Amino acid sequence: MKIKRQKQAKKSITFYKYNFRFREPFLILLDGTFCQAALKNKIQLKEQMPKYLMGDVQLCTTNCVLKELETLGNQLYGAKIILQRFQVRRCSHFKNPVPASECLLSMLEDTNPQHYFVATQDPTVTDGLKKIPGVPLLYIVLNTIVLDKPSQASLDHVRAVQLGELVTPAQQQSIRSLKEEQGIGRKDGERRGKKRKRKQSNPNPLSCLKKKKKKGLPTPPLRKAEPGERRKSRHKRRKKGDNMAAAAVINT
Question: Where is the composition biased (Basic and acidic residues) (predicted)?
Answer without folding.
Answer: 177-191
